Amino acid sequence: MVLWDNGRIRRGPVIRDLCRAFPRLHVVRFPPYAPELNPDEGVWSIAKAELANGRPDEGEILRAHLLGAVTRLRRS
Known about the structure:
Layout: E1 2-4, H1 13-21, E2 27-29, H2 39-51, H3 59-75
Parallel strand pairs: 1-2
């Protein structure tokens, strides 16, 4: 089963060929924009709120902030 967001980029001939090649593949199409149906949207919304207004000067500091936010999300 594939949960598909049905965005314009995923409606071309390559995707149609893939679905024809694997007829047992069950595709559940979401509307093109439906954040309430996508659990990832809630996770990223919380992470972005926690990380807002930060501007680390180094990539390693950014990485530490991101890992901390994801770890706290995983525990909640």
